[in-house]
């Protein structure tokens, strides 16, 4: 009897997972990018940055967004103009959003503009899976599963203004988290390439990290990558 129940549960679970993946495809995407961002590199540019109203964010990777994406590299955007960001729907997770999804845009603000942009451009394209609260909560949960800074530190890579190779950075994160992200760089004021954003791939049902079906494009980092302090 117990075996039968386990079997029924297993079948129900796999049908559920297949359904979630299928509904992602019907909604126009195949997987998600969870994009994390090093605040030190956002700020260490010609353009500089502004700390949010709540104060300087922690020196840790923050969330940029959770983006539905297709296997061919394209992505849906701004999928539901009738679903404008409503701050009241995330009031219970505001402190987590402030600490883990900090705005760095100028002028100083409370982050609502950044979160509204992410929800409206990307989150509304995964409404098969999430309402607004669920979207932000899923990104927070997924980020919480990655200890990127610890993974880098274990390999002797720290935000000390030093330079590291792409292999060392990816290898350290693969070793510590189980997944090697796509590394996206920006430029400091002197034009040096620096570690800016990490793209991790997430299953279409948002339950777990997966190997990336496709790498995002963009200017390559080179092999001498600065990791600036924050
Ligand atoms: P997206 O359109 O989702 O690709 O995000 C790009 C937009 O997000 C640009 O307007 C960026 O300036 C903005 N952005 C990226 N990181 C941050 C941040 N930490 N705080 C505020 N805005 C940001």
Automatic annotation (TrEMBL):
<dbReference type="GO" id="GO:0016787">
    <property type="term" value="F:hydrolase activity"/>
</dbReference>
<dbReference type="GO" id="GO:0033897">
    <property type="term" value="F:ribonuclease T2 activity"/>
</dbReference>
<keyword id="KW-0732">Signal</keyword>
<feature type="active site">
    <location>
        <position position="64"/>
    </location>
</feature>
<dbReference type="GO" id="GO:0006401">
    <property type="term" value="P:RNA catabolic process"/>
</dbReference>
<dbReference type="GO" id="GO:0005576">
    <property type="term" value="C:extracellular region"/>
</dbReference>
<dbReference type="InterPro" id="IPR033697">
    <property type="entry name" value="Ribonuclease_T2_eukaryotic"/>
</dbReference>
<dbReference type="InterPro" id="IPR036430">
    <property type="entry name" value="RNase_T2-like_sf"/>
</dbReference>
<dbReference type="InterPro" id="IPR001568">
    <property type="entry name" value="RNase_T2-like"/>
</dbReference>
<feature type="active site">
    <location>
        <position position="122"/>
    </location>
</feature>
<protein>
    <submittedName>
        <fullName>Uncharacterized protein</fullName>
    </submittedName>
</protein>
<keyword id="KW-0456">Lyase</keyword>
<dbReference type="GO" id="GO:0003723">
    <property type="term" value="F:RNA binding"/>
</dbReference>
<dbReference type="InterPro" id="IPR033130">
    <property type="entry name" value="RNase_T2_His_AS_2"/>
</dbReference>
<comment type="similarity">
    <text>Belongs to the RNase T2 family.</text>
</comment>
<feature type="active site">
    <location>
        <position position="118"/>
    </location>
</feature>
<dbReference type="InterPro" id="IPR018188">
    <property type="entry name" value="RNase_T2_His_AS_1"/>
</dbReference>
<keyword id="KW-0378">Hydrolase</keyword>
<keyword id="KW-1015">Disulfide bond</keyword>
<keyword id="KW-0540">Nuclease</keyword>
<feature type="signal peptide">
    <location>
        <begin position="1"/>
        <end position="20"/>
    </location>
</feature>
<dbReference type="Pfam" id="PF00445">
    <property type="entry name" value="Ribonuclease_T2"/>
</dbReference>
<dbReference type="GO" id="GO:0004521">
    <property type="term" value="F:RNA endonuclease activity"/>
</dbReference>
